Amino acid sequence: MSTLLVVAELNGASLTDSTGELVAAAKSVAADGDEIVVAVMSDDPSTAAASAAGLGANRVLTVQHEALAEMGAGGFEAPVAAVTAISANLNPSTIFLSKSDFGSNVGPRVAARVGGGFAQDCVGMSSAGNGRLSVTRPVYGGNALAEYAFVGDGVQVLTVRPTIFDPASGDGGSPIESFDAPADIGNVSARLVETVAEESQGVRLEDADVVISGGRGLGGPEPFEQLQALADVLGGALGASRAACDAGWIDHSHQIGLTGKSVSPNVYITFGISGASQHMAGCSGSKVIVAVNKDADANIFKDARFGVVGDWANVLEGFRATVDDLSAS
Amino acid sequence: MRASGSRGEILATKIAVCVKQVPDPDTPPSAFNVDEAAKRVVPPAGTPPVVNGFDLNATEAALLLKDAAGGVDVEVTIIAVGSEFVMDVVKRPLSMGADELVLVDDPSLENLDAFATARVLAKTIENQGPFDIVLCGRQASDWDNGHVPLVLSEMLGLPCVSFARNIQITDSGVRVERSLTDGYQVVEAPLPAVITVTNELGEPRYPTLRGIMAATRKTPTTLTLDDIGVVDGDVAASLELTRLYVPESERNVEIISGDDEVEAGRQLALRLREENLI
Fold this sequence. Notes:
The complex is a heterodimer of chains A (329) and B (278).
Chain A (H helix, E strand, L loop, with lengths): L2 E5 L2 E2 L2 E2 L1 H13 L5 E8 L3 H7 L6 E6 L12 H14 L3 E5 L2 H14 L2 E6 L1 E4 L5 E7 L4 E7 L5 E5 L15 E3 L12 E7 L12 E5 L7 H12 L3 E4 L1 H5 L20 E5 L5 H4 L7 E6 L6 H4 L2 E4 L2 H17 L1
Parallel strand pairs in A: 1-4, 1-6, 4-5, 5-12, 6-11, 7-11, 14-15, 14-16, 16-17, 17-18
Antiparallel strand pairs in A: 2-3, 8-9, 9-10
Helix pairs in contact in A: 3-4
Chain B lengths: L12 E7 L1 E2 L10 E3 L4 E3 L7 E2 L1 H16 L5 E9 L4 H4 L1 H5 L3 E6 L8 H15 L4 E5 L10 H9 L3 E11 L2 E8 L2 E7 L3 E5 L11 H9 L3 E3 L15 E7 L8 E2 L5 H14 L4
Parallel strand pairs in B: 1-6, 1-8, 6-7, 7-13, 8-12, 9-12
Antiparallel strand pairs in B: 2-5, 3-4, 9-10, 10-11
């Protein structure tokens, strides 16, 4: 019998969907008799803890301290200290975090402190018996998949890619217990001064039903104005490849991919994007991908449902004209 | 660990930049091959490796700090651990303007996991330091782990600020803008510190002819694991790679055409409307 520790993620005072996904991941590898514990850490954990109690875990632990405000953003030293203390107390076999800013910063440091192994961005996992796990994670920008086994008997720390698991739910409420914050938790050296939102105007990329996206093939900044105009007409949002952002043609707030935003629209329409795996990692949740590229062998056509082989400018001209006709009729 | 002197004299700010030689990530997926038996990626013939892209962003961050200081009193040391280094490749940060290159070259380093890599880097940094700032790219384009810098910070006992898009040295340490998907955070940390750098910092500068000439003349410091005091237990794996493969994907695309490309665009819009997608 072992303990599986899920580290909850909060947005303000609320629990994120990813926490339910982590509980589902834990359940997928839990053996009979294993205990799933959700840790909720915040300056005010009560609201999130109440939500976490509905996820079907065995119990919920709350850690309350002002250094845990905004999930300890800045250097994440307070949550690292808190998870380490919980781990020392529960001696879990596995610690689950989300592949997020928080999880990818906290997980590795916790693993280093508790003497465990760490696996980033897991998209699959299975039990290898005795509480040991085998995990699958994309590597080489998503070009390949790698399977790993945790070696030895240290704590297995991992981050789980969002949206891979459907959020868990449970009947009734799990008991909520408080856990004393470690004495050194306020001893933080890297401090958050301020968080500055740079929301792009119009529809949020993450919420958009239609995303129009452009890449290196567009050749400059001006085409992105045409794509933005098309996105506006369709009530959608504008995305871009990292190459286009790095070239300065479009702001990085539009970057889609492994290290940018992840989008999941009904339709993701690309112009001049070759479809490098690290880009596709950010749009693979789209229901339908549409490719416009002059290279018929471009990788994007492997993932696309509909495609046109041709110069983006000509195709966009016809596409836009018909969109205007359709919206006028 | 801060290199500044105790009696108020200003010593140089010493910056270490950790870089990794990786297979070229711009290899088209059609040319991407895995040797499943050996569990390794086989680069296409004639495609040389490159310095990991985010590590060049980290190099750029170091050089911007040097520029901000007027080019003096900042020393930038590039540290790479690995094997089969291609000298023209790993010298690129030197040709961009870095001062020194330290290579830890050992065949056993090719298959190290991230924890062991962090251990070797930590020992190298202790051997070559003290450093005021340790810069790393946010993740490497081969294994996409992104946790070596964080584990390294734990081993060095330093704070870690990740995803920097702007770094300023202040009287009390550093002020870092860390990139978020919807904006940024301003974080202040004392030095020494580990900072990871993201592509939002800006494109790495191109080497100048003068920089390339200067890099050609520089001889890297080459260290062995013995030199830095790494013993077997330091590089024990915590994860074992059991399988490496390319996922199958079936091409299932409906190619839409027309009399010309403009007409194809028109037909595409009609087809998407038919599917209620727009």
